[in-house]
Design brief:
mainly alpha
């Protein structure tokens, strides 16, 4: 694995907390920060791709038909629209 250096400037309070957590985990501050960055990258990439994977090839074309099949009844208590809701 190739490594690149990056001069990271952190607020003192953030560095102190990161160092505390790294020590608690039994790893170096550098390793702890590298792992935190890797986790953040994973979260961002997963969050960006999840809706696309979940939707697949779905489209909204059949949504109107599905909604037409829903029963026409009053909402359950607590599910009502706010009084100031304006329907377009």
């Amino acid at each position: 694995m190739s490594k690149a250096t990056y001069p990271l400037k952190l607020p003192a309070s953030l560095k102190k907390e990161a160092a505390r957590l790294a020590k608690q985990d039994g790893v170096s501050l550098n390793q702890w920060i590298a792992t935190a960055v890797a986790q953040k990258i994973g979260v961002v990439e997963t969050t960006a791709e999840f809706p696309k994977r979940r939707a697949g090839n779905a489209s909204g074309s059949g949504l109107s038909e599905i909604l037409r099949q829903a029963p026409d009844r009053a909402p359950d208590p607590g599910d009502e629209l706010p009084p100031d809701w304006v329907s377009s």
